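Entry details:
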Amino acid sequence: MSKKKIFIALAASFLISLLIKDYKYWFSHRSEDSRTERNTGLPGRDSLRSTIYLPSHAGGRVGYHYEIMKRFAGSHDKELKYIPVVDSSSVWDMLKEQHTDILAINIIHDPVPKSLAGKVCITPQITPLGEVWIMMKDHCPWHLSLVHWLTLFKQNPGFSQFRNRFLPSSPDRCPYDSLLRVVSRPLGWDWKMLRSVMYQESKYRMNARSGSDAIGLMQIRESTAKDMKVLNPYDPEDNIKGAVRYFAFLRRNMHLSHLPEEEEINFVLAAYNAGMARIQDDREQAAQDGLDPDKWAHVARYAPQQTQEYVEIVWNRYMGWVSASE
């Protein structure tokens, strides 16, 4: 072997040994970094608490924040627990008094109060509208880890598709269409009908809550959520599936399966709005008056005005979407 070949072989061996050494060093430190990232001082509980305080017209943007928070919590082996805003308390007090860990808020419309100046950590904007996440400095040693995670998340190849599900928010763009397509099949309804109900109930806001304790996207009452085995009524998937189970329950218990689909949907929607007992009483009254209790046009006059309008609005929006897609 010539001296030149020997020299090349030795140089190659030397370079390979350096690469192996560097790889071992990188791998060991990567493992340490990974362990550090997963032990970044996140709350010593099984859950990460979050609160989203955005105006009612925010629509699907609320779900955008929730889904990102949920993914961040999952990356640290935590379950995301949504903490609703109580009318009688300030969102800033909720954060200060440790009732929640992360507050999503529009910092332009709701700036940090002077009493908390220098005491909070603020992420870069989550949306271009000034919506950020805020945490108390004393309780968030994981702030930099969160910012780093958000940066990596937005660099993910699938991020644009994820973002486009939620932004921009509009009545004709529902972030949950793919889920609605799946859960509507056992019910046999067009998924757009479920979307119309959702928009009427919550305007696609997963944290919507009414004065009568109806919760989430489909505005399920707490008692109904419990009966339908909904573990987390604020979680979009749990809420939607629970509502569909309740629709099936209404259809079965009101004996509607033999009716044409349009009439079936009419009565389910009416019962969802006014209550099953009320609509069954209205059907009985219609029958006593010589009318057909299986036709909503005959029964509607006995139902509350608000329920009559509810059924009509849901149908009109649904038909508008169907016509637009033809």
